[in-house]
Amino acid sequence: EVCKLLMCIHTVPTGMNAAVRATVRVGLYTGAKVFFVHEGYQGLVDGGDHIRPATWESVSMMLQLGGTVIGSARCQDFRTKEGRTKAACNLVKLGITNLCVIGGDGSLTGANQFRTEWSELLADLIKAKSSSHLNIVGMVGSIDNDFCGTDMTIGTDSALHRIIEIVDAITTTAQSHQRTFILEVMGRHCGYLALVTALACGADWVFIPEMPPDDGWEEHLCRRLTEQRGRGSRLNIIIVAEGAIDRSGKPISCEYVKQLVSKKLGFDTRTTILGHVQRGGTPSAFDRILASRMGVEAVMALLEATPETPACVVSLSGNMAVRLPLMECVQVTKDVTTAMAEGRFEDAVKLRGKSFENNWNTYKMLAHLHPPDTKSNINIAILNVGAPCAGMNAAVRSAVRIGLLQGHQMLAVHDGFDGLAHGKIEPIGWSGVAGWTGKGGSMLGTKRALPHEFMEEISLSITKFNIHAVIIIGGFEAFIGGLEMVQAREKYEELCVPLVVIPATVSNNVPGSDFSIGADTALNTITMTCDRIKQSAAGTKRRVFIVETMGGHCGYLATMAGLASGADAAYIYEEPFNIHDLEVNVEHLVEKMKTTVKRGLILRNEKCNANYTTDFIFNLYSEEGKGVFDCRKNVLGHMQQGGTPSPFDRNFGTKMGIKSVLWLTDKLKECYRHGRIFANSPDSACVLGMRKRSLVFQPLAELKEETDFDHRIPKIQWWIRLRPILKILAKYKISLDTSEKAAMEHVIKKRGLVPQ
């Protein structure tokens, strides 16, 4: 019988509890004994009541809680051989052979040292009867996102949510009073939080430890702030990482920057140090799903481990769970610190990984360049199509600004294809998109009308306004509209211009992309609503809630919200169900009501089944649950399309907007023939989407084969493979083999840091 030990150490970012819950439940599901270690390594050394068996019900209320319910403590005893021997003794007594450690690089390094010494420690224990090896899997919990090898650590997204909430609140008062605000965010050795915050709020300047400003930055900063005010801006936002330094290694503090701006420019300046508010609060949907996936992958890694398997850490790369050798990641993380200490700042940024490097390059493009004096004579039109969603405006803003920096004239098209046909087109400048990053909905206005209704008028508008390229931001209507424009090229030569579709819809149903702008914000709205619904049931008990989500025929929102909120079932179109399945779900809830967790949550995608409607399921559950539980239903509706964009959607939209314009700029050079633009090849009309680990352009014509047009969804959707995790965590008896598995990769070779 395999035994596992679950422990939580040192840093306590929000989101850890989801990892604890998933590891415990999947561990128990596989037949293993699972133990909590309370108070981290200190509990491991002290033993006794600090190491307790975990049960299924003991983790039922964890998902929505911040911090860690099993406690965390720094431990000097574990740094000594004597302390580690005591810890080994406590494990031997319980027959534990596997450790799952959640913490930062220090915690994980300590775990690896413990594993390396295991045989030696056992030899020191008299007549020890235990396995001669110890398996270790790590999950990284750190709000700083300072661990190399993973795109995101547990807690980072939640910390960004806290920061952006505060920045948005400060922005309104700064605008009212024409103030300059300087905000300090956490990140002693890593500037990730500061960098992404700067992108997400359109900050004027950011200070991060990996890339100190050039000498003479004080003059440059004051010049930039003055220019922004000259363009009509009523506020300035400066973000400072707590570990920010100048080129000589001298710290740059909020107070120093405040004194500089106040004295040199005379601006009304305020400072805010966010502090530990960044560590707390409710975990975001992204962190809950990330931690749950990591927890499942950690158990799988332990089950497959052999004495020869090195200690690994479960990481995220794009939307894929990967396993990396723990000490390689720790080494690269140390290399970053060394590079910064030696003044090799470009190397430090590269060592942080592609995600960090892309963020830095995006920031540089938007923040530190002036529009060129010479114009390109290129006009690029931008329009929003379909239903509005949060993050659209961030994509428009970055596309407009990067277009202006390329020397192009950017044209804003109001009200989608309808506006394109009827000439609702006007030039839009730098200040025209100021403050758009944090605004929800669509500032340009959007309609569902498709171009086939007025293709002739559209072709005339393209000629009249001399449009050379088109950016279409929207959902499935944007995809269809792009296809219709490509098909009409044969009839209308004016439509032979490059075009790019940027997926932006809460439904996340655009072919060619694993993620759409707006889906993360909608997912957080659903998750937070489900939290409140569950809380209301905690008092009344024996209550089941049926919640209907948006998404059309796409079950992404229902599935991911089910994972994030701990739902008992999520009905979707992609996974057909019948009356027998509904009966099994009702019986499952009847059994659940006999435990200490006397509540249920069922999610239903709005078009999962034409006959098994929300009302039908509500009535069925109400009838079958008589005397055991009562039911309530909630149709969330259009609240899922509103709200301010999440940090992810702001950042994602910003990157997509920039990449689309840079691609169009290159494509226009390719398509310039005989003094005019002529683009009629399939690769001149593409969808820009995230596929696994990178942003890629895919011709619209090729994506037709991958699309179910009747139901407006891609034929293959990556998130379907996460469905078994949802069922296992809800205690359904299914095969674990259907879950995604990850092979061990090598972070050092992957980054090209050593010869391959």
TrEMBL record:
Annotated keywords: Allosteric enzyme, ATP-binding, Cytoplasm, Glycolysis, Kinase, Magnesium, Metal-binding, Nucleotide-binding, Transferase
Subcellular location per the Swiss-Prot or TrEMBL entry: Cytoplasm
Regulation: Allosterically activated by ADP, AMP, or fructose 2,6-bisphosphate, and allosterically inhibited by ATP or citrate.
Residues binding Mg(2+): D105
Ligand binding (beta-D-fructose 2,6-bisphosphate): 448, 505-509, 543, 550-552, 606, 632, 638-641, 712
Region (C-terminal regulatory PFK domain 2): 379-756
Name of the protein described by the UniProt record: ATP-dependent 6-phosphofructokinase
GO annotation, biological process: canonical glycolysis; fructose 1,6-bisphosphate metabolic process; fructose 6-phosphate metabolic process
Residue stretches making up the Phosphofructokinase domain: 14-301, 379-663
Class of this enzyme: transferase
Function: Catalyzes the phosphorylation of D-fructose 6-phosphate to fructose 1,6-bisphosphate by ATP, the first committing step of glycolysis.
UniProt cross-references to InterPro entries, sorted A to Z: 6-Pfructokinase_euk, ATP_PFK, PFK_vert-type, Phosphofructokinase_CS, Phosphofructokinase_dom, PKF_sf
Annotated source species: Lates calcarifer (Barramundi)
Region ranges (N-terminal catalytic PFK domain 1): 1-368
Binding site for ATP: R74, C75, G104, D105, G106, S107
Involved pathway(s): Carbohydrate degradation; glycolysis; D-glyceraldehyde 3-phosphate and glycerone phosphate from D-glucose: step 3/4
NCBIfam families for this protein: 6PF1K_euk, PRK03202.1
GO cellular component: a single term: 6-phosphofructokinase complex
Active site per database record: D144 (proton acceptor)
Catalytic reactions of this protein: beta-D-fructose 6-phosphate + ATP = beta-D-fructose 1,6-bisphosphate + ADP + H(+)
Family in the record: Belongs to the phosphofructokinase type A (PFKA) family. ATP-dependent PFK group I subfamily. Eukaryotic two domain clade "E" sub-subfamily. Belongs to the phosphofructokinase type A (PFKA) family. ATP-dependent PFK group I subfamily. Eukaryotic two domain clade 'E' sub-subfamily.
UniProt keyword annotation of Heme present: no
